[in-house]
Here is the input.
Amino acid sequence: MALVSTLPILFKRRHVCEAELNIRKAARHCHPVAAQQLAWQALENLRQQQASALAYFDVFLMMAVVTLVLVPVVLLMKRSVAEKGAHIGH
Here is the structure.
């Protein structure tokens, strides 16, 4: 169980480390202003990725709550019973 809970943290750390390495490589070969812009862009990309993941989790949670609320409602509904000889529909 502990491994499962630490996996997202490890993936985040790995992704941040990769971003740092890319920024450092760019800083060695670029003008300082360009390197700073690349750093800001890398942070923005990471922020956008995290925001997308959080939005996905929020929607998933909301759908789970709606499902849990609607299942008992469906189970409490009565079956419709037609009278003998009655036509269903028009």
Q: What stands out?
A: The chain has a mean pLDDT of 79. Helices lie at 2-29, 32-76. Residues 10-74 form one domain. The chain has one domain: 10-74.
